[in-house]
Design goal:
Strand order of the largest sheet: 1-2-3-4-5-6-7-8
Distance between the termini: 54 Å
Strand content: 5-15%
Largest sheet: 8 strands, parallel, barrel
Shape: globular
Number of strands: 8
Order of helices and strands: HEHEHHEHEHEHEHEEHH
Low-confidence stretches: none
CATH superfamily of the largest domain: Phosphoenolpyruvate-binding domains
Number of helices: 10
Bound molecules: 3-methyl-2-oxobutanoic acid
Structural class: alpha/beta
Length: 257
C-alpha cells in the first residue's frame, strides 16, 4: 500500500486529517506544507469556470489542473476527482482512472456514489487503483443540494452505502453535508477515515474548497469559514498598481534595464 495512504489510515481515532482542494501549482505548494491530503476537486467547474454543475467538467480539464497541482505537491496525498460520465462502468472507469494516474501521477482518485458504483470500485481496487469515496450530497448527480440525513430512509441508505464502499476497498470517504449525528455514526461504524465538508466536527478529517476559505469568489455556504478576504486584498494591490502605472511610479529605474 502507498505509504501516504497508510499515513492517512493511521490517523483514524488519533488526529484530525487536514484536507483542502487545489487547482494549480502555487496554491498547492503552500497547502502541501500543512495538509495531509490535497484534492483536485471537480468543484473547479463552478469555482474556476462558472459551470452550473460539475457535470460539465471534462477529464481533460481535470488532468490539466492536476498536472499543475502535482508540481506543487511533494508530501501530501494527492487525490483527483473522476468527473461525471467517466466511470459509468468498470471498463470505462479503469481506462480513465489509469489515464488520470499516468498523466497526473496522482496517488488516488475519488468517485461519487454508493451501491450503484460498488462493482466499479471493486474492479478499480482489484486493479490496484486507490479509491476515495464520496457520500452525502453528490454534486455530479443530485438535483437538490440540501443536507442529507433528514429522513430515516435516507440515513439508512447512506449507512449502507458507507459499509458497502468500505467493504469494496476504498481507503477513505468524503461525507458532504451529512447531518451531525449521522456523520458521527458513520465515522464510528467504519474503520477507514471520514473526511467531512458540511458534516460537523464528528468526521476524522475536514476538507474545504480553497477559494472559499481564502475569500475568493462570493460563496455564502453555511459550512464555509472564510479565513481571509482575499478578494479585498487583491483588489487593494491592483488599485495600487493601476495608480502607480498611471502616475509613472512603476516601473522605476530599478525595474528597468
Ligand atoms: O469537488 C470537490 O471539491 C469535492 C469536495 C467538496 C469534497 O468533492
Amino acid at each position: 500500500m502507498n505509504k501516504k495512504i497508510k499515513k492517512i489510515l493511521s490517523k483514524k481515532n488519533k488526529s484530525k486529517i487536514i484536507c483542502l482542494t487545489a487547482y494549480s501549482k502555487n496554491i498547492a505548494s503552500i497547502l502541501d506544507r500543512y495538509c495531509d491530503l490535497i484534492l483536485v476537486g471537480d468543484s473547479l467547474g463552478s469555482v474556476l469556470y462558472n459551470y452550473k454543475s460539475t457535470k460539465e467538467v471534462t477529464l481533460k480539464t481535470m488532468i490539466n489542473h492536476s498536472k499543475s497541482v502535482r508540481l506543487g505537491v511533494k508530501k501530501s496525498l494527492m487525490v483527483v476527482d473522476m468527473p461525471y460520465n467517466t466511470y459509468r462502468n468498470s471498463h470505462e472507469a479503469l481506462k480513465n482512472a489509469k489515464l488520470v494516474i499516468k498523466k497526473t501521477k496522482c496517488d488516488a482518485i475519488k468517485l461519487e456514489g454508493g451501491k450503484k458504483i460498488i462493482s466499479i470500485v471493486k474492479s478499480l481496487v482489484k486493479n490496484k487503483i486507490p479509491v476515495m469515496g464520496h457520500l452525502g450530497i453528490l454534486p455530479q448527480t443530485d438535483k437538490k443540494f440540501t443536507f442529507k440525513g433528514k429522513k430515516q430512509s435516507e440515513r439508512n441508505r447512506i449507512i449502507k452505502d458507507a459499509k458497502l464502499l468500505e467493504a469494496a476497498g476504498i481507503f477513505s470517504i468524503v461525507l458532504e453535508c451529512v447531518e451531525t449525528k449521522l456523520s458521527k455514526k458513520i465515522t464510528e461504524m467504519i474503520n477507514i477515515p471520514t473526511i467531512g465538508i458540511g458534516s460537523s466536527v464528528n468526521c476524522d478529517g475536514q476538507v474545504l474548497v480553497i477559494d472559499d476559505l481564502l475569500g475568493l469568489g462570493k460563496t455564502k455556504l453555511k459550512f464555509v469559514k472564510k479565513y481571509l478576504d482575499l478578494n479585498k486584498i487583491i483588489e487593494g494591490a491592483i488599485k495600487r498598481y493601476r495608480s502607480d502605472v498611471l502616475n509613472k511610479q512603476f516601473p522605476k529605474a530599478k525595474h528597468s534595464f
